[in-house]
Queue: 4 jobs
Job 1
Amino acid sequence: MLILAIIATGMLIGWIAQLALGQGTRPDGQSLVVGVAGSFVGGMLGSLLAGDGLAIRPSGIIGTFVGAVVVIVVWNAVARRQA
């Protein structure tokens, strides 16, 4: 059940990160990918550094947002190099 919550929260936070960077108005496949990647990268790191464990807590949500923004920036940099 925790995995489903991480995926759902990751997609929502990924979409919010895209909105913050001005990259779209609707959730799409990229939202899912960057949200879940950001969740594992930033959320897990944020939760573990805050001592919250692997539960969904504010530290993990903030970490997920930061991780999703980082993943979007890297994704766009790689896409520009390939174009």
Job 2
Amino acid sequence: MNKHMKFLLVLLSIVFLFVSCINDSDNSTPDGPVIEGTWPFWESAAVAGWSTEKLEQARAHFSLMDSAAVVVVYQGKVLCAWGDYRGGYLTHSVRKSFMSAVYGIYVDRGQLDLNKTMEELGIDDVPPLTRDEKQAMVIHLLQARSGVYHTAAAETQSMHDYKPERGTYAPGEFWCYNNWDFNALATIFDQETDSDFFTALNEDLLQKLGAEDYIPQINGYSYQLDRSIHPAYGFRISARDCARFGLLFLQNGKWGDEQIISPEWVAESTAMVSDAGDYFPGTYYGYMWWIYPQGYGAEWGLLYSSRFRTYAALGAYGQVIAVIPDAELVFVHRVNSYQGDDVPLSDITVLLDKILAARY
């Protein structure tokens, strides 16, 4: 082995030791790791008025799940953060609530008109939309009520099977969880504004929230042109940056001294617009947000979460950003779908109930 190779091996060993020391450093409170950076955090669960013992029981339950991370924010401060809260995991359908928020910013600026139809906007597809489908308005797409049952990018088989036949319902007449609606909103946004979705997501939202882990360069549109010309827009984001997004909504769109999204849009987009019970029993849908009314889950033994109205961004494999206004709480749950992990929503709601048991 020559001296250059020996030097390289020594250098790599030093780097490995340095990284190991960082990963193994004691950066925790009795209730879990502290999120470093600009996040304020509670000194302990007890100081926040929570039971340390019960929160530890919830943490033990979390450790038995295939979850990647959990972050809980209470009254604007991090209460607990478990797992890899910095990891950039794929959003899956959580992306849709971010799109809804970005729409709110540009509606407030007057750059998007929710009452324009697909025909007025020149929005079509391959194969083409019918004359009736072109009467769907932007507001219908936000509500998943377009009546356009065209195939779509990132559409699972179950989503495809759930959709009615094309032409079954007129725009605004029927709610259907429909990726065509959600994807076409990206095309409309890019066409009608002076930005594009990923730029707006980064500059008009995440940067203003002080997001610490989002990397714009690794995200982009995903096309499946054999299905539709309108792309999906999944992206990677960490649990702690998701928690910032949830906290923005908990604070009615305000972050520090800046009103990023109007309180009116926060209320409008998270209102119970449609009964989604046929697709997801007991739930409602707003503008790409899921809403759980007070009492949801009580019959299944959810003693604590059922006390509150909750709205949430939900994605496949167990991606959740839940906002519980009356509890002053944001709950984020992430799963590493890259390695095939999948946590049922029923298990996640049990975990949330155990966390809330530490306070209520």
Job 3
Amino acid sequence: MSENILGTDQVCQVGLVVRDIGKALDAYCTLLGIPCPPVVITDAYEKAQTMYRGQPSLAQAKLAFIDLGQVQIELIEPIGAPSTWKDGLDEKGYSVHRIAFKVKDTPQVVEKLTQQGMPPIQQGQYTGGMYTYIDSAKKLGVILELLENF
């Protein structure tokens, strides 16, 4: 049996890229019979320190989080600058962008994934933590997201 590189096997979030977050949010909440959560906008570069393909990025997105017990659906509408969100929407349209796992020691996990041919492609900070998107689509069919709360 091989090592669990992520340190967990629990998916905590599935991210979908959408063109119109209001329509997508309404459709999901109607389907599930739940109230719509608020839509938020990611932090600007000055706070998020977003890096995309190794370069600083002004990328932002509108986000909505639908809590479903262990798993959360995150709806993502990209705004502006190049990002994995915009790439996903441009390439595939409304689609699954990534699956997320909560990890500890992001640098160590990133190093192990990079050794497996899956380097980071986007990283940023949010209040209370950081996210890292891993270029894993060729091997796994989807981007992995590492979430680490501080």
Job 4
Amino acid sequence: MNKTLDLSALRSFVAVADIGGVTAAAGKLNLTQSAVSMQIKRLETLLGRQLIARQGRGIELTVHGEQLLDYGRQILGINDEVWNRMTHEAFEGKLAIGVPPDILYPHIPRILKEFSDAFPRVEVKLISTRTAELKEEFAKGKLDLILTTESETAKGGEKLASYPLKWFCQRGNNQI
């Protein structure tokens, strides 16, 4: 039977362990001392292990507490990363990108997948058409970014890469 850890209780436990006391951790978490103590007790009950040994006014982690602390930091780190990535408003909105068909494959789909994974709240609109049309749309402000294959860099543009032109044909075919 799978059980689920209480992330609030786990956060309280990690804060107590990191700060070294229930009162200080409660202040950091904006909770009462009794609320933090109850969350830790609930976590101990859920796991069936004593996690903290109280030493007068201080605390000391038990062997099980030390073990949980490492996992707790990892779990909370992943939780916070997911929460920030999925809810951070600085990385949401729409992005219109223009790419001519001759440079679309094979790289652009992979790049868009990586971008989507990194910024899931950004809606990407991909336009693939001739460079002249892309430049017109960019000038009108309808595209945020365009990639083109031109020898000269336009004003306000930036050269990303330069590759030599290569021609390929079958052996013995001298008609090209």
